[in-house]
């Protein structure tokens, strides 16, 4: 009796059907993890000899709000498949006037303003303190910047994202605080997703898709208010553009790329 080959992937993408619908021979698989079920099935495909795993972090019909995402299960599932490189796009609001709607930001830092999220795999008796001083892979960030720029999209090469709990947005006072702190964009999903990937020694890159100016900039009188139709128009435009960016980035990632993220557990263990 033939032994069924274990599913595997080289590169993971946290994104919806817009990504994998462009590829042939997509295989849908369900995975269970020690942390429960991921947000949805995982969709496996091949692109130019690379195995790619797509997982919609909010579910395929966007039914899971940010504060209910099972981040540990999602990241564990990617690791179980053998993923070493992870592309993590997300929609964000801008906190600075020079970062305009429709721009992309390749964040290099985050600030955690969430609460109560399960944000580590190391809950004892094995203890690790994995440093997130540089939470994103510098090599993947450089590749992403090059791809985005080549596609004619305005890209900011670095930025700090403040991650809020969701599903509510910020008050004007909170948003003004974020802006005056010098932070660049605001989102709801990069923490603990990026940190958990680092604990699993997966190299991760965030691509932040700016949909609108956050309310603090409006309150400060620095930008005019936006309406829902404008936000949806930018969101749709970004959703189309990130597909081609992600697929080209997958083509460019060398599978022998060694990232500092792949060594995140070195010196992180605490020994009695």
What would your notes on this structure say?
This protein has one domain: Nucleoside phosphorylase domain (Rossmann fold), CATH 3.40.50.1580. It has 7 helices and 13 strands. Strands 1, 2, 3, 4, 5, 6, 7, 9, 10, 11 and 12 form an 11-stranded mixed β-sheet that branches. Strands 8-13 form a two-stranded antiparallel sheet. Helix 2 packs parallel to helix 5. The longest helix is centred in the last third of the chain and has 25 residues.
Helices and strands in order:
Layout (H helix, E strand, L loop, with lengths): L10 E3 L3 H4 L6 E3 L12 E6 L2 E5 L16 H10 L4 E10 L9 E2 L3 E5 L13 E2 L9 H13 L4 E2 L3 E5 L7 H9 L4 E3 L2 H10 L3 E11 L1 H5 L8 H25 L16 E2 L2
Parallel strand pairs: 1-4, 1-5, 5-12, 6-9, 7-10, 10-11
Antiparallel strand pairs: 2-3, 3-4, 5-11, 6-12, 8-13
Summing up helix and strand content along with how strands pair, one would put the structural category as alpha/beta
- Number of helices in the DSSP assignment: 7
Determine Rg (CA atoms, Å): 18 Å
Parts with pLDDT < 50 across at least 5 consecutive residues: none
Helix content: 25-40%
Number of strands: 13
Specify the overall morphology: globular
Distance between the termini: 47 Å
Residue fraction in strands: 15-25%
Assign the CATH architecture.
Answer: 3-Layer(aba) Sandwich
* Overall average residue pLDDT: 92
- SSE series: EHEEEHEEEEHEEHEHEHHE
CATH homologous superfamily - what is it?
Answer: Nucleoside phosphorylase domain
Number of domains: 1
CATH topology: Rossmann fold
- The level-1 CATH class: Alpha Beta
Biggest sheet, open or closed, and with what strands and sense? 11 strands, mixed
């Amino acid at each position: 009796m033939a032994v069924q080959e274990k599913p595997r992937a080289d590169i993971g993408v946290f994104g919806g059907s817009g990504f994998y619908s462009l590829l042939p021979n997509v295989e849908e698989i369900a995975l269970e993890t020690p942390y429960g079920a991921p947000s949805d099935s995982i969709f496996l495909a091949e692109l130019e000899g690379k195995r790619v795993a797509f997982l919609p972090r909010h579910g395929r019909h966007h039914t899971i709000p940010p504060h209910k995402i099972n981040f540990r299960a999602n990241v564990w599932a990617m690791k179980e498949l053998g993923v070493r490189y992870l592309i993590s796009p997300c929609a964000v609001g801008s906190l600075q006037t020079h970062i305009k709607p429709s721009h992309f930001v390749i964040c290099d830092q985050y600030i955690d303003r969430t609460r109560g999220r399960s944000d580590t795999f190391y809950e004892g008796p094995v203890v690790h303190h994995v440093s997130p001083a540089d939470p994103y892979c510098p090599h993947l960030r450089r590749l992403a910047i090059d791809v985005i720029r080549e596609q004619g999209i305005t890209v900011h090469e670095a930025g700090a994202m403040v991650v809020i709990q969701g599903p509510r947005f910020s008050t004007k006072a909170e948003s003004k605080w974020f802006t005056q702190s010098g932070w660049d964009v605001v989102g709801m999903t990069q923490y603990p997703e990026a940190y958990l990937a680092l604990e699993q020694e997966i190299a991760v890159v965030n691509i932040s898709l700016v949909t609108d100016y956050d309310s603090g900039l409006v309150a400060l009188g620095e930008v005019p208010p936006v309406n829902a139709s404008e936000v949806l128009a930018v969101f749709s435009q970004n959703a189309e553009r990130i597909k081609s960016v992600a697929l080209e980035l997958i083509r460019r990632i060398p599978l022998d790329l060694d990232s500092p993220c792949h060594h995140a557990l070195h010196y992180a263990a605490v020994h009695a």
